[in-house]
Structures are given as C-alpha cells and as structure tokens.
C-alpha cells in the first residue's frame, strides 16, 4: 500500500517534467552537427570535417573535436563555452593558437592538443584558464616555447611536451608551476638544461627527459624536487651525472642507454634508505636502470655490483637494470648480476687479507679477472725495471759492505742467513708495491 502511494506521488510530481522534456524541448541545435548527450552536456564532434568550431554546442562541458580541420584558434575561440571542462582538439591539423584563445574558459580543466602541427607556444597562450590541470601538447612540431608560455595556469598538474622539436628551454619556463606533478619532455632535442629550470617544482612526481641529447646532468638541477619519485633519463648521451641531492621518495632512476662509464656519483642513491614499502607490506624495488652504458668495471663500481647482487631476483623482471661492463676488455659484456666476486681484488686483498682465511681464497679465485689494461702495464714496465735495477745495485752494495764489515768481526755464517732473508723481504716488498702503483694509476683513470 505504502509503496504504491509513493509511486503515484512520484509519478504526479515528475510527469510534467517528463512531458516537458519529451515534447516541449526542441532538439538541441548541437545535435544537428554532433552527437550530443543532453544530460551529460557532452558533444562528440569527432571526425566530421569541421573547419570551424560549432557554436551551437556552447553549453557543453565535454567537447570532443578530434580529427577535424581547424587550423587556427583565434582570441576567444571558445568564448561562449562557459561550462567547458574537457576540451579535446587532437588531430585537427592545428597550426596556431593565438594567446587568449581560451580566455574566459574559467572552468576548463583538461585540454588535449596532441597530434597537431603547432610550432610555437607564445607567452600567455593559456591566460584566462586559471583552473587548468592537464595540458597535452605532445606530438606536435613545437620548436619555440616563449618565456611565459605557461604563465597564468598556476594549478597545472600534468604537462606533456613529449615528441616535439624542442631544443631549448628557458630557465623560467616552468616557474610558478608549483602544483606540477608530471612533466614529460621526452623525445625532443634538448642538449642543455639551464640552471634553475626546475626550481620551485616541489610537487613534481615524475620527470621525463628521456630521448634527448643530454650529455651532462649539472648539479643543483633537482634540488627542489622533494617529492620526485621517478626520473627518466634513458636514451640520452649522458657521460656525467653529478651527485643527486637527498630526494627521499626517489625510487626510480632510468639511465638506460647512455654513455656513463662511472656511476660512483650514484652511490649515495643506492645506499640511502628510502620509503620502499608497498601497502601490502612488501618491499618496493628501488629501480636504477643502467644497462646499455659503457661501464668501466673497476673498484668504483663495487657498490653497484653489490647492490645488483642483492636485487638479482627483481632484476630478472627489469632487463634495463641488468648492467654490463664495457671495460676493461677482459670484462666486456660481463653482467654485474653474474659477477659474484669483487672486480676489485687489488683493493680488497690489501684491505681484507688479514680478516679471514676465506678472503684469501676469494681473492685467489677472483684474481684471473683482475687484468689491468695492457696500456697501464706497458707504461709500468720500464719504471719497474729502473726501480728494481737501482734498488738491486744499492742492496748489493750494502750487502757487500755489511759482509765485508761483519767478516772483519768474524760473524759470517749468521749474517749470510740473514741477508738471504732480507732479499726475500725485498722481493715481497716489490710485489706489494707494484700492484699498489697499478691500483693508484687505475682508479685515477
Ligand atoms: C569528410 O570528407 C571526405 C572527403 O573530403 C569524405 O570522404 C568524408 O565522407 C567526409 N566525412 C564526413 C563525416 O562528412
Ligand atoms: C611568476 O609569478 C610572479 C608573481 O605572480 C610573476 O611576477 C612572474 O612573472 C611569474 N613568472 C613566470 C615565468 O611565470
Ligand atoms: C661526479 O661528480 C663530480 C662533481 O661532484 C663531477 O665533477 C664528475 O664529473 C662526476 N662524475 C661522473 C662520472 O658523473
Ligand atoms: C604486493 O603488491 C604488489 C603490487 O603493488 C604486487 O606486485 C606484489 O605481488 C604484492 N605482494 C604480495 C605478497 O601480495
Ligand atoms: C643479465 O644479462 C646476462 C647476459 O648479459 C644474463 O646472463 C643474466 O641472466 C641476466 N641477469 C638477470 C638477473 O636477468
């Protein structure tokens, strides 16, 4: 009974509006050009050969204009579109966005402009869009980003600039984008990032500079990025990277396919304790991808080798982490994961030989791997010969002198034995001195 009453009441209240919406409301004009969903204020205008923006759809919240032929967006192109929140203008052969094209679109939060023909982003292009959070400008032909190109959009969180022709960025391009979380600059031609480019981006989580022409990563560049989690630098020509600042959340550095020979400046990253627990309590693998770098497997690489040994299991799923040696020649293509003994026996033997008999065995086992490059050996040979000859002459002279002196005192047999011993000592001293020289030379390279 009760439910029936409710049903009738609801019907009585709602019927006028149902009748109104079905008979009185004229079909929305936007329906004439696009697929228009009245209740969602959503216009799907994709793939309609449009050459201008259909003004009939000005009430929309979600506006899909993909795959049309609109080449220029003039000032106030979307002036009437006061509700606009999502604007998709991908694949429109768009060449020019006049600064102010989106002015008064105060509710606009997402703009998708990827896959167009844009070459320049002028200053204040996005002025009047104060709530913009996502901006996709990837896969255009952008060469020039004027200073202040992103001024007026302080709430921006995601900026895609990948797959363009960008070779230069000014140091204040991203200034004031303090809410930025994701910045993608991959596949451009950036060879230099000026100091201060990322200053103030304290909320940045992901930064990708992969696929550029970077050679050096200067110091101080990432100092402000306290929330950075992932830093992608793969497919560049990086030969040097300065020690990274303390970034407690950073757990992914991708340096795959670069020109690094030494990674000693990343030792702190490997050692730093960081938040690595997942919600289910398992440890998160701190990812450092260094495969395809011409690494020089000397003593300096030891922290990386140990770290890779510890994470062998995880590395099975991350081929980019499976770093290999390029030099010395004997170790060429040896995977650091497969290398269970230190590369650096010379160093460890002097350091560990007194510790435990096992370390001696370990060093012996590893010794065939320790071959210093021919060049180092050949430059060392003449020096060794000279040193040995001079010391031999001095020693022999001393020997003759002592024997002569002792002879005169009549205590020859004892002294003879003793001098033999000192000759052995000399030989031993020479052996230990030699590798130390090599080592000093080697680690200095
Ligand atoms: C767009 O134009 C092309 C030729 O210019 C035509 O083949 C195609 O049918 C048109 N599409 C629409 C949706 O009108
Ligand atoms: C950053 O914001 C300040 C203050 O609002 C402004 O003066 C400056 O021009 C802005 N700089 C850039 C590059 O957007
Ligand atoms: C390590 O950092 C120093 C500066 O702190 C720099 O001079 C050097 O080139 C860096 N080495 C590598 C291999 O990146
Ligand atoms: C914990 O979660 C991660 C993904 O977040 C998953 O890969 C892993 O297998 C999970 N481990 C367990 C023990 O459930
Ligand atoms: C790393 O690569 C080498 C070959 O270069 C392979 O033998 C080894 O199994 C790989 N290690 C892991 C942990 O995947």
Description:
The protein has 445 residues and is an alpha/beta fold. Among the domains are: 341-371, no CATH class; 376-443, no CATH class. 29% of the residues lie in helices and 12% in strands. It is built from 9 helices and 20 strands. The protein has helices spanning 2-24, 30-33, 267-271, 302-310, 312-315, 345-352, 357-366, 374-409, 412-443; strands spanning 35-37, 42-44, 62-64, 72-73, 86-88, 96-97, 110-112, 120-121, 134-136, 144-145, 158-160, 182-184, 206-208, 216-217, 230-232, 240-241, 252-254, 287-289, 295-296, 325-327. It has a 12-stranded mixed beta sheet. Helix 3 links the parallel strand 17 (252-254) and strand 18 (287-289). The longest helix is centred in the C-terminal third of the chain and has 36 residues, at 374-409. It starts with a helix and ends with a helix. Residues 14-24, 346-382 and 410-445 have low confidence and may be disordered. One 2-acetamido-2-deoxy-beta-D-glucopyranose (NAG) binds at residues 148, 151, 172, 175-176.
Report the oligomer.
single chain
The 3D shape can be described as: elongated
Unique ligands: 2-acetamido-2-deoxy-beta-D-glucopyranose
β-strand number: 20
